[in-house]
Design brief:
alpha+beta; 3 helices; 91 residues; globular
């Protein structure tokens, strides 16, 4: 996911040999739920007092065959689950 407001160059961060936790401040990073709510608003909605993102009954998603929580920061998912072409494919 490329967003012009991202502070980190994800490809450079992943290629570094040192172990850097680029999502140490997860409050500033977009979550998977936030992206899915933006991209497919007919399948996701906000609920509860804390306005967490939740799917409608029939909505499913997966990344490399797993269904991560909607609260996961996209940066963490990308860092661990991106393909060799540096894309994170969400199905």
């Amino acid at each position: 996911v490329y967003r012009s407001d991202d502070e980190n160059n994800l490809a450079d961060a992943k290629d570094k040999d040192e172990n850097v936790n680029i999502s140490s401040d997860t409050e500033n990073h977009t979550s998977l739920g936030d992206l899915l709510l933006e991209w497919v608003p007919n399948l996701f909605h906000r609920e509860g007092v804390d306005a967490t993102v939740a799917p409608i009954e029939s909505a499913t998603w997966s990344i490399q065959g797993i269904q991560p929580p909607l609260s996961c920061p996209v940066v963490d998912l990308w860092q661990c689950l991106c393909y060799p072409d540096h894309f994170l494919y969400v199905a």
